[in-house]
Amino acid sequence: MDDTAWHHVVALAGGVGGAKLAEGLQQRLGPRLTVVGNVADDEEIWGLHISPDLDSVMYWLAGVNDEARGWGLADETWHTFETLERIGSAPWFRLGDRDLATHLTRTTLLHEGKPLTEVTARLARGWGVQARLLPVTDDRLRTIVHTEIGPLAFQDYFVRHRWEPAIQAIRFEGEGSAQVTAVVQDALRSAEAIILCPSNPFVSIEPLLRAAPLRELLRASTVPIVAVSPIVGGEAIKGPAAKMFRELGEEPSALAVARRYTDFLDGFLLDERDAHEAAAIEALGLHVAMTDTLMEGAAGRRRVADAVLTLAAALRL
Ligand code: GDP
Q1: Which of 29, 132, 291, 302 has its CA 20 to 30 A from that of 112?
Q2: Ligand 1 pocket list (CB less than 6 A)
Q3: Using one digit for the tens of pLDDT, what is the confidence trace for 264-316?
């Protein structure tokens, strides 16, 4: 793959699944990559503004993430949290000592009135990220998971309730008023390819699409838009994506993922374990390529990034 052929590629990413592909793309593209990240699972804990998805992407892109734990920073310590536990005031959301530096910085700058886009750029620079990381919106947009035990803010559902309650519907607070930032709109306009990372379709990609007018911008785009399936062998690699499909009344499959994006998608990178779904996805009008999409290690992430860039290159006008 001649990666020098790309001047600018945009990736839409959620948390860890998105972060892994973004890291693989960054290995190839460096600062020629823009990652547009999800803010709908942001939460306020101890008065601090936490952006779990943006931070996952930022830490993976900076190479400072804890790969085994799956979230947060490597070489983390927990003295603050343990002390809060000791004095009986620990929150249900764990925050590491080093991680606090990110949240303190973000919260302080937001309180000074800086938009999240600027704050994220400052943090990404501080952590040494090569690619450009942009929140999809500076406005308030929040995922509300309606479950059998009532409506829950996303982190409440995901962390406190360990995504156990059955889902009935997912709604987005701020939909209709949250606007895609001007800088994201410019990035999409100058992109030569747009990649949907293998992120949760319901709570990572969907909230991005609900920031207006992202979906319309994608529909109007003339450059290749390609997605990597987050569902492999009918299951999620990690997290609630497959469970959400079932609870919302659909069998989890790569085809079910592809169907959600047919109004703007051109190409689909399918896992080779799901080769039997290729014909049905092609019948939706999509170009399908296949590979082992499991992104294990830096080489695995680069391999999947290469596969998706090759598919996008083949669809370039
Ligand atoms: P979260 O917010 O941290 O849960 O992360 P995302 O929404 O970005 O990603 C969750 C999705 O990533 C899940 O549906 C996983 O199946 C998918 N995923 C994670 N790692 C991989 C991988 O190595 N390959 C593929 N194809 N999907 C992955």
Answers
A1: 132
A2: 14-18, 20, 53, 56, 198-200, 204, 228-230, 232, 236-239, 241, 271, 293-295
A3: 999 999 999 999 999 999 999 999 999 999 999 999 999 999 999 999 999 99
Q: How far apart are CA 214 and CA 209, in angstroms?
A: 5
Supply the residue whose CA is at minimum distance from atom 12 of ligand 1.
Answer: 17
Tell me what percent of the residues of the chain surpass a pLDDT of 90. Answer: 96
Query: Does residue 4 carry a pLDDT above 70?
Result: no
Residue with tokens 């992202």: 214
Closest ligand 1 atom number to CA of residue 70: 3
Q: Tens digits of per-residue pLDDT, 166-225?
A: 999 999 999 999 999 999 999 999 999 999 999 999 999 999 999 999 999 999 999 999
Alpha carbons 20 and 310: distance in angstroms, whole number: 18
**Residue 163 lies inside a defined structural domain of this protein:** no
**CATH number (domain holding residue 208):** 3.40.50.10680
| Cα 111 to ligand 1 centroid, rounded to whole Å | 32
pLDDT > 60? residue 132: yes
The answer to whether residue 152 is domain-embedded is no
d(CA 269, CA 254): 9
Cα(189)–Cα(264) distance, rounded to whole angstroms? 15
On whether residue 191 sits in a domain, the answer given is yes
Is the separation of the CB atoms in 35 and 61 below 8 Å?
Answer: yes
Structure token pair of residue 135: 């929140």
